[in-house]
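Researcher: I'm preparing a figure for a lab meeting and need a structural model of a single chain. I don't have an experimental structure, so a prediction will have to do for now. The sequence is pasted below. Please return the structure as tokens so I can convert it later.
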Amino acid sequence: MLTRLGRLAVRRSRAVLLGFLLALLGLGAYGAGAQSDLDLSRWDAPGTESVHAGDRLREHFRTGNPNLALLVTARDGDVDSPRTERAARELAAEVGDLPLVTDVTAYWDAGSAALRGEDGRRALILARLEGTATETREELATLSAELTRTTPELDVRVGGQEEISRQVGEQARADFLRAELFALPAVLLLLILVYRRTVAALLTVAVGLFSVVGTLAGLRAVAQVTEVSTFAANLALVLGLGLGVDYGLFVINRYREERAAGHAQPEAVVGATRAAGRTVVFSGVTVAVSLCALLVFPFFFLSSFAYAGVFVVLTAVAGAVLFLPAALARWGHRVERHTVPASGFWHRTALAAMRRPFLAGAGVLTVLLVAASPLLGLRFGLPDERTLPEGTSSRTTSEIVHREFPAEPTDTVQVVLEGVAPDEGAGTSGYAAALSRLPGVFQVDAPEGTYRQGERTGAPGQDRLTAPDGRVRLAVVPTQEAMYGDVPAFVERVRDTPAPAPAMVGGYPGETTDFRATLLDRLPYAVGIVLVATYVILFLMTGSVLLPAKATVLNLLSLSVMFGCLVWVFQDGHLSGLLGFTPTGSIEPSIPVLMFCVAYGLSMDYEVFLLARITEEHERTGDTVRAVGEGIRRSAPLITAAAGILALSFLSYATGGVVFLKELGIGTALTILVDATLIRVVLLPVTMRLAGRANWWAPRPLRRLRVKEAPARTPADRADGPGGEDGSGGEDDQGGEDVLRREYV
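Model: Understood. Here is the structure written out token by token.
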């Protein structure tokens, strides 16, 4: 198939290039409007108890999580002065008339101690904005500026979970835009340095741009039938450009090799498409499968990255095996080099490692295990305002509330009791009193009144906490310490408290707890899919049982280094001053899951490139040591260049203000660099040297399953070694040492 594609590209190069240009323009025009059709997301898990509780709150109580908070500061006296109270009540009435607002609770109406600062100078107005995350945050983009004000009576600041999330999204978009504006010219410059030919660099960037615009268009099309996260478009930018660079590098370099071997230009194009194209296809399938594992999670935030991964791979592979061959057929003479590069540092390093496999392997393995060791202290937590940079308005508002208020009313745990009989008031009262005695509870608002430490302290609130159908709502207000501690444990204590009727526990703490639990429950399935699928793909490519297993272990080792870095830097706070973030003592779990799938796919991407070349050389010579050395000599410089360019693209996110992006950028870049250097150029050759003939073994019935489309061997090639397609070997330890000695001589 790839041979036929190569011949088609040569014969119809003009038509292929014209079709590519039209597709680029059409997809670009359609994809340019993708952001308007993509959606924002919240921390909730469909089908969980907290989501059902939220549905009951909306249907029967016309309320829900208070996601907007106004921090009111009295400019003269305290919040109880008549002048301040009058202005605050007018503000609360104004908020109640705003679009999307369905519920308003102000200190001056409720009289709750949880809504009053400890020094009496500040109080809170809480509101509920009803709608999707996209609708409420678009509305807040205008409301936030309007509600932030200073009058003769009041200073008003805007905060709350929805405002924090809105500003996280705005900051992330600005960070992505700045990163991409830096990455594109930097990638082009690096490609010019690698190729030493401007045309080759431009063609490679064209493949990346085609992947980017094609993916944006694909995401917009999918958004017409299901929800797609706005952040998937951001991943499309960096991943599309990165894979386009990777695939372009390998196709163009293989074309150069074919020309250096004496083939005419049309034959060189076909040969490069057949050999490098096969590797590109296997690589693309590996990356797509790794990202498609995100579909096991019932969150469109993560499934959107799976859609992006599929479109990135389809467009990058299409550009590499169709556009590039056509471009090389017309302008190939402008990308050729007339000198053959030296074997280089990586080739010498691999040969040295294979001469002393135990010493080299043990040394590198020790370094990697030490770097990965912080992973043992990994703690998953929930996000808060510290995700944003210091000085961001919503973060500052939250910090004031945390510092000066005894409780966190915006994080109220909502309990809905189903079917409470009229004569069970005493049971509800006892339940509320029991909840109020739990560690981390500031107060409980119940129909009979407000309970604090088991004692009723407030007046009844039947109108807001009961429904005509017998349902009862209790509001469990946590302390500040509870919300900055183990939130899931706090929620579980509430859920474990015996209730007088069937109870559902929700609110923002319940939603984030259920989100984390669902994520971690599904995680083993995602990991299993990635490991099994990539093993099968590598087996189909190499025909070996052992090589895919070793690749999996080495990939997991490089990912362990990535997670060790996340813990050491972002959880424990090392380098926080240099990188400009506030450590929280835990890691929000959805970003590491995304990073696992992205980094695993990219790491296996380089494994595919290297193993494909080593396998090809082994079939030609039958000598594992020689095949490894030659495969690294030809592939490692390209892998290093591609990895450096892709790592630079991800590292550009480290300059952003949102902690999630810093984690994604630094962690993924580190994995790529470690994988392309220590793993691929030391540990892989060492393990292959030690395994010898076993590298190529497979049960006879399975050998037929291998997908083969490699260049035909010549008689001269066959004379170089006795190896055959069944991988029966040809070298022993002594033979391998002889090869190494000849290489050094």
